[in-house]
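Recall that a protein's primary structure is simply its ordered list of amino acids. Everything else, from secondary elements to tertiary packing, is in principle encoded there. The following example makes that idea concrete.
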Amino acid sequence: MWHVHGSYTTSLVHGRHTYLLPVDAQRSSHGLGRADTWDWPAGAVEITAEECADADVDLVVLQRPEELEGLAERWLGGRRPGRDVPAVYLEHNAPQGRINDLRHPAADRCDLTVVHVTHFNDLFWDCGSTPTQVIEHGIVDPGPRYTGELARAAVVINEPQRRARVTGTDLLPRFACAAPLDLFGMRVRDIAVPDVTTFEDVPQADMHDHIARRRVYVHPIRWTSLGLSLLEAMHLGMPVVAVGSTEAFEAVPPEAGVVSTDVERLVRATRELIAEPALARAHGEKARAAALSRYGLRRFLSEWDELYEEVTR
């Protein structure tokens, strides 16, 4: 499998298998290899194109159209995923476009299984006759680190300027009226909003400690499968305030915070949680319990193991 989504891959490579990660000299998007910002087990092994061509591969995990359309076949020495070697297509993203046009690139492939990360994605993507399966996210538990000592709200968005309304960047000024915001992520420095402080260079190993010092986690993203940063915040024991789109209603129970499509309600909830530390902590404890129950790593890896056995038998 290619190193495409660092947080997701971090969870997956904690399984009991050997995970071959293509690497090239440039560490390009087609050969990124092991992560240098996450702590991955020894079972995550880098493999060059030359090595991969002759490798004894049990399963290919495809994640991008170009892998399906020839990249994987070239790395595998001419072996075709799904035909010459078992393969699944792991779909991370919610579809974009008109509802009747949401055709998946792996649609109508009887030799593949499309693995969705949320039931929302399974509902919206048109996979035709290709079998589908939902394996909900699993998180490497960072532990209950919440202190809430800072009367500020944490937000995590990568590339907020470019992704704009998709990530709810336009909503940040409204939330900043309720509490000072600390925005973490990639390429956040260009955001110039009063009461929004940006943190771009926080090492991954320190990120959880920084976020957990904030009193509430705000998730303004309009369109995503299900933000792993939201689930990580819940694991930390943070109360969450989230835009109620895609899978958020499923992930955040009422006792863990507030999920709504009414932005003013979300702003009021942020203000209330900032003002009442005991209430924030109580919601955060419920958030952690819910996240551990539904998005724990053991269940996640067990479901992947079941899928491995099914498609490789």
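The first helix runs from residue 6 to 12. The two ends are 19 Å apart (CA to CA).
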